[in-house]
Design goal:
Largest sheet: 12 strands, antiparallel
Radius of gyration: 22 Å
Shape: elongated
CATH architecture: Beta Barrel
Distance between the termini: 22 Å
Helix content: under 10%
CATH class: Mainly Beta
Number of domains: 1
Number of strands: 12
CATH topology: Lipocalin
Order of helices and strands: HEEEEEEEEEEEE
Structural class: mainly beta
Length: about 290
């Protein structure tokens, strides 16, 4: 039976990693310490998420027309990112630092895919930057979990984790202007803070609770318009924006199954009003 469960876990993870691209809400796991003091574990995790983001910043536009240069600086512009799709795979090392307190680090890769819309002053959308598809780039993070209280088969605890993601840059086009060519580069970090119960059953544990989700990062968009194509006349744009989340409060729930004394499999689902994600993973204690 254990071999069948382990095989199912492997198949699920391979399907997730090899699927097409779906900032991600990284998996969190149970909000409690899971190791004894001095004990360690290795883990492999896969996560997928979709979320809405907003960006704010400035844009510099230079127009080279008829041999003259006109530079325009706009101090405030805004972009809207709807349903940013991110896939990520992480390796994780956990260490039981003290009794009822763990710490961990993770390394891995993440990507991102979406369209980006420029927002007018009245809230309507204007330019649609299409085909942003950042391939997998390096990511890393760290965090800590602690158990606060235990009564019978139920423990109460919490966790904090910080994750940095840096998908590769991607070419973009404007849907309504075929003369535009551009590039977008995005990097961001996320903070998740969760608290809640974990309930022990015969061969698994159930966990969940509320969590806070914060995002901060940078979006740089540069591009040019040859007007008309093949002539010296052109317009260049350089945009530098700060990325923010649209919602900060959410909830999550998950289950962790014991494969044997030292290994387990987990799956979980997370959501806020403007984001959702799921994760699967496996852990080996040593």
């Amino acid at each position: 039976m254990e071999k069948r469960v382990a095989l199912l876990a492997l198949v699920l993870m391979v399907i997730g990693v090899c699927s097409s691209v779906a900032i991600a809400i990284p998996p969190m796991g149970p909000p409690r310490a899971g190791l004894h003091e001095g004990q360690g574990s290795l883990g492999l995790e896969y996560g997928y998420s979709e979320m809405d983001l907003q960006t704010f910043g400035s844009v510099t536009e230079k127009q080279f027309l008829s041999g003259s240069l006109l530079t325009t600086d706009i101090s405030y512009t805004s972009f809207e990112i709807k349903d940013l799709q991110t896939s990520m795979i992480w390796g994780r090392l956990d260490v039981g630092t003290w009794e009822n307190w763990d710490m961990f680090v993770r390394l891995g890769m993440s990507d991102a895919q979406d369209d980006i819309s420029s927002v007018n002053a009245n809230g309507s959308l204007s330019d649609q930057y299409k085909n942003f598809d950042g391939d997998s780039g390096f990511g890393w993070g760290f965090g800590t979990r602690a158990t606060f209280y235990q009564e019978g088969d139920t423990t109460w605890g919490g966790l904090i984790q910080v994750t940095w993601s840096n998908p590769d840059s991607s070419d973009v086009v404007i849907e309504s202007d075929p003369s535009f060519t551009g590039e977008v580069e995005m990097d961001y970090w996320e903070v998740q803070i969760a608290i809640g119960p974990t309930v022990e059953l015969d061969n698994c544990r159930l966990y969940g609770g509320p969590f806070l989700h914060f995002i901060n990062g940078d979006l740089d968009l540069s591009g040019r318009i040859d007007d008309p194509p093949g002539t010296p006349d052109l317009i260049t744009q350089d945009t530098s924006h700060e990325i923010r989340e649209e919602s900060q409060i959410g909830g999550y729930a998950g289950a962790q199954w014991y494969l044997n004394e030292n290994s387990s499999l987990f799956t979980e689902f997370q959501f806020t009003s403007d984001a959702w994600g799921f994760g699967i993973g496996t852990t080996w204690k040593f």
